[in-house]
Specification:
The protein is built from five helices and eight strands. It is α+β, with helices and mostly antiparallel strands and about 180 residues long.
Length: about 180
């Protein structure tokens, strides 16, 4: 009779351990990816977790798309999520993980792009800003040349350097520099 209760206890312990192991693995916290941004034209700020583990947070991505809208027209476009990862990784690469990034320009409508082409220099006719694949930035406390060098080192796309205007263009297109 003693053998039976021992088997029952062993079986019960096995079940408990079997059930606890997957549960604790599933409850392990996922790595959070956060962006802190300041838009230099709208004076808006956003501090948001846009990704957990490998999954983008849809509501956060929508808020980022709205934040990075064309500041001239108010038009919103769905941006390439790789841009958010690029900004996150760029801040970490320069030793400023979690620091605020200044946004000079996010999405641009074709109208805004043409307006800039007519009033300034160095604006591409087929800018990736219009595709939601480019962003112009600066980081307080980080020299623009250092930010450029970090973006080049990451090799995630195009990097434009504008020292007079004190910003760096980054995009997720083909790797190139200017």
């Amino acid at each position: 009779m003693r053998v039976r209760p021992l088997r029952l206890i062993t079986f019960a312990l096995f079940l408990i351990l079997f059930r606890l192991a997957p549960a604790s693995a599933a409850e392990a916290p996922l790595r959070e990816y956060r962006l802190r941004l300041f838009h230099t034209h709208t004076n808006e700020r956003i501090d948001i977790v846009y990704r957990r583990g490998d999954a983008y947070v849809p509501e956060a991505v929508n808020r980022l798309d709205q934040f990075l809208r064309d500041h001239r027209t108010g038009d919103i476009r769905q941006l390439d999520e790789r841009l958010f990862d690029l900004l996150h990784d760029l801040a970490a690469f320069v030793g400023k993980a979690g620091a605020e990034i200044n946004i000079v320009c996010g999405y641009r409508t074709p109208w805004s792009n043409e307006f800039l082409r007519e009033t300034t220099s160095g604006v591409a006719a087929h800018s990736l800003h219009m595709e939601g694949e480019a962003i112009d930035i600066r980081m307080p406390g980080v020299a623009t040349a250092r930010l450029r060098d970090a973006a080049l080192a990451l090799q995630r796309g195009g990097v434009g350097y504008y020292p007079k205007s004190q910003f760096v263009h980054v995009d997720v297109g083909r790797i190139r520099r200017w």
